[in-house]
Amino acid sequence: MTTKLMGQPVQRVEDQRFLRGQGRYTDDVLTTPGDDAVLHAAVLRSPHAHARIVDIDVSEVLDVEGVHAVWTYEDLEGLSPAMAAPLPLLIPHPALSHGRTQYALAKDEVNYVGEAVALVVADDRYVAEDAVGLIRVDYDILPAVVGVEAAREARHLVHDDVPGNRGARLVQEVGDAPAAVAAAPHRLELDLTIERSACMPLEGRGTVARWDPDTDRLQLWTSTQSSTGVRAAVAVKLGLALGQVDVITPDVGGGFGVKIVHPWPEELLVPLAARALGRPVKFTEDRREHFISSAHERGQVQHVEVGFDDEGRVLGLDVEFWHDHGAYTPYGLIVPIITSTQLLGPYKPGAYRVAFESLYTNTVIVTPYRGAGRPQGCFAMERTMDAIADYLGKDRTEVRAANFIQPDEFPYDHQMVFQDGRPLVYDSGDYPAMLEKLKALVGWDEFPAFQAEMAAEGRQVGIGLGCYVEGTGVGPYEGAHVHVETSGKVKVAIGLTTQGQGHQTVFAQLVADELGVKFEDVEVVAGDTRRMPYAVGTFASRAAVMSGSAVHLAAKRAKEKVLRIAADALEADEADLQIVDGVVSVKGAPPDAVGASIDLGTVSVLSNPLRYAFDEASKAATQFSVGDPGKPPVAEDDEPGLEGKDFYSPDRATFASGMHAVIVETDPQTAEITILKYAVVHDCGTVINPMIVEGQIHGGVAQGIGGSLYERMAYDSSGQLLNASFMDFLMPYVTEVPDGIAIDHLETPSPLNPLGIKGAGEAGVIPTAAAFAGAIEDAERRTRTEASITAMPISPSELYALRQTPRQEQS
């Protein structure tokens, strides 16, 4: 029998190609010189955070040699009427009372530094950039609103028709939380802050378009997490039928959420230019453009009131927070909704109230970044748990255990509405068992002795932990197509894009298992609308749950047809057949028995009434086979070919969970923070490939370290981003990431999908800031003032300053 691949650490099939420099990214598309060589686009971006556009003068550009087009907003309607309308609001919500989106090119006003104002298309990027510099724009500069506090004060408005800069306010309540807090034996209040940050993929945004006038078809290559979403948007905005647009996603050098926006202005402007000019057009974002014109995340200010009993059980939790969503809201309220619902983590407060306001500022738009609101929520909840433990003088793990949802309480209904509009119901988990695994992995019970030993040497060490639950596998659907070719090879098409998660490996594992074929005989193609025109996208830790389930179901359909055809050819009962290494055979028959087996390639030939004799074994000596004269060549409930296609649509999200712990050392003189040990226990249900899951955790932890200790977007009061380069924006190098992250798995299969799987993509980043805050605070207990960590990220200079401030004055 073929060894089952589910749960095995199969080596990634993608890696050799990438390691050998054979990756093919968007900027590698259409690079051949010639008369039909690709043209290049460059964008003039606003230098001001808030200003009215009085006049744009492009006259100096028109006669520049090598320039083919220069467009401002005024040109768009003549090229395509729909282009003159704002970009789509992708995820509306009833609470989003004042949703606003930008135009492909700014109309009348700019609202953040980096907003697109004009487009130039030229022979190469050098000419295009030079031409952009010749455009003269007369701006009437307006006051900028920067940061949550300025947005709340509302002395100035980002949009004149949005009172108080408030795009939305949403409240969810379970019980009477304020009353429960007031009546509790003990009460605490916390004020917390998470700074704005951003993802920095290896590859920025990029788009290439080619229009074929002979067929009236558009081909678009773009570095996106949602090829089907881009396709739909481009078709609408350019006035094309959906069938006229093909979107292909080549290799993507990282997504992390920034590439889920669809469309970006350039994804519309580039194909518009290609059609108008009759030449292929390419746009490749540079690094500064990524800083000032893509998307940021994280920024929140939080206020927590909690009431609890002598054991640390939360009786009432009342949370209010203010979310900075930047100048526009293309992605609606997804990030703050996730914060508000995932804040609860693995706990069951007696009563819960959460209210948030989503506020406009004159800064770059905010869309999901790996974690997508969960790191903020986890920071609020875990800092609260630490504060309760500190107040009661209890061990931090003991307080958490007192509040856990218990294994026999699943499914657990929080009586709230999740990001997908479905009930917030946890499907499975075992949080007490996970905590015990984590304590053993990090050496929690042995740590006090180690801490005392280090203190005797004059060293300050501390330990912290963070617990989280992550909603994964949100709908509405994903599909897959499995095709067994006459060679016996299996081609799999999924609509999801891939940007490093190992999709070509894990989905091949699923197909190989279900179809009984060799792993190396399965090829997976992702993100090509020509192969799978209906899909949603790669985000929210949904690929394995959604596409994995669809792939499994499609392979199952293909297998059913294989067995049906093979049973007829072998004159055997389907139940007596097996598929091993791509050969269908009668169970128990000798391997060399005549007429007892048939390979998948031959079954594929037999699946089509229009047959060709590829070899003697095909038994298809003529081109056309009449078959049984009493039956049609293709049955009414069948179709030619050996294929399986299916879609998976879940009732609701499935909930992964995990716990992290970290041991740090803080230098008594310099306040530098060093990681001594990092440990993770994670539950993503049934594990398809543990090596890939661990790789996802490693990457997430690295990003979490960045968000905890280094990365922030530093704006001045006029809305200028002060650190828009890798010279100034700090990220962890390999030297700052722990060499060996201790990882353990707990598997509580989900009952919601056929494989029992949950997502894992964002797990590593969610609790990292909370764990670091607890560890640093624990280390600083040896100092005179005992720093209270209420804001992240924290730098050595900030920690040093906290040491100089009495704790009662710290906010």
Automatic annotation (TrEMBL):
Coiled coil: none
Source taxon at top rank: Bacteria
Stretches assigned to the Aldehyde oxidase/xanthine dehydrogenase a/b hammerhead domain: 20-143
GO MF, one example: oxidoreductase activity
One of the Pfam families matching this protein, by short name: MoCoBD_1
InterPro entries: Ald_Oxase/Xan_DH_a/b, Ald_Oxase/Xan_DH_a/b_sf, Ald_Oxase/xanthine_DH-like, AldOxase/xan_DH_MoCoBD1, AldOxase/xan_DH_MoCoBD2, AldOxase/xan_DH_Mopterin-bd_sf
Annotated spans, Disordered: 623-642
Keyword annotations: Molybdenum, Oxidoreductase
PANTHER family attached to this UniProt entry: ALDEHYDE OXIDASE 1-RELATED, XANTHINE DEHYDROGENASE
Protein name per the record: Molybdopterin-dependent oxidoreductase
